[in-house]
């Protein structure tokens, strides 16, 4: 009897172990991705926040690569399409505010798209520019204290930043708080603005135009979103 039980145990141990399933997001977790800017700026004015008399241009065309000449609006759409695929592979519901560059969607309207879809997370993709060409690195902007979604937005910002920061091949510059951004002030959902790097810095510009680097960066962003959803 003992010998028989031992043989059964050995047989069980020899059986191949089943791979654990990849965790799926919480049911109906919706992410709205906003590829920043568009091909042509719209300098017409809109309120910076609900009820505000302070006005701001509806949307700009963004910056461009100091070496590559690539427009920011092209880069952000490329990154958004990569991130969309990565998130859909992880069973998230994903909506993009735009699928092409020749559009006219203001920053207020982009936030309203996220509100309409009752997004669990609103990801805004951008790249930065500076008069100082030595400034480089990935960083995140998040709504300042006092915004209704400050706490949730900061939580998402932290986990996404941590996921990117783990990769030592990517320069990172932390998280900043802003109260003057139209897309934040009109958003009724947790919002994170990702500055992927500085297009005015030669190294960042070349990296962001490298498909492998951009895919790696968006993979880390997706990992952060998964961590936020847990």
UniProtKB/TrEMBL annotation:
Domain MurNAc-LAA: 111-226
Annotated segments matching region Disordered: 1-69
InterPro entries per record: MurNAc-LAA_cat (IPR002508), N-acetylmuramoyl_amidase_3 (IPR050695)
Biased composition range(s): Low complexity: 57-69
Gene Ontology CC terms: outer membrane-bounded periplasmic space
Keywords: Hydrolase
A GO molecular function held by the record: N-acetylmuramoyl-L-alanine amidase activity
GO biological process annotation, one example: peptidoglycan catabolic process
Matching PANTHER family: N-ACETYLMURAMOYL-L-ALANINE AMIDASE, N-ACETYLMURAMOYL-L-ALANINE AMIDASE AMIC
Protein name per UniProt: N-acetylmuramoyl-L-alanine amidase
Organism name: Guptibacillus hwajinpoensis
């Amino acid at each position: 009897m003992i010998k028989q039980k031992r043989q059964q145990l050995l047989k069980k141990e020899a059986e191949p172990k089943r791979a654990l399933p990849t965790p799926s997001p919480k049911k109906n977790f919706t992410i709205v991705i906003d590829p920043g800017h568009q091909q042509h700026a719209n300098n017409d004015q809109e309120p910076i926040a609900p009820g505000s008399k302070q006005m701001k241009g509806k949307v700009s065309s963004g910056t461009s690569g100091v070496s590559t000449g690539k427009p920011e609006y092209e880069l952000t759409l490329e990154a958004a399409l990569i991130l969309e695929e990565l998130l859909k592979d992880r069973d998230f519901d994903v909506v993009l505010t735009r699928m092409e560059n020749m559009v006219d969607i203001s920053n207020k309207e982009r936030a309203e798209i996220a509100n309409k879809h009752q997004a669990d997370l609103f990801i805004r993709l951008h790249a930065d520019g500076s008069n100082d060409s030595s400034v480089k690195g990935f960083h995140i902007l998040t709504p300042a204290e006092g915004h209704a979604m400050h706490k949730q937005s900061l939580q998402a910002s932290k986990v996404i930043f941590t996921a990117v920061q783990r990769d030592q091949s990517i320069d990172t510059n932390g998280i900043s708080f802003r109260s003057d951004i139209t897309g934040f002030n009109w958003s009724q959902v947790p919002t994170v603005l990702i500055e992927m790097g500085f297009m005015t810095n030669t190294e960042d510009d070349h990296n962001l135009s490298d498909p492998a680097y951009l895919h790696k960066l968006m993979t880390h962003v997706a990992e952060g979103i998964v961590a936020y959803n847990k």
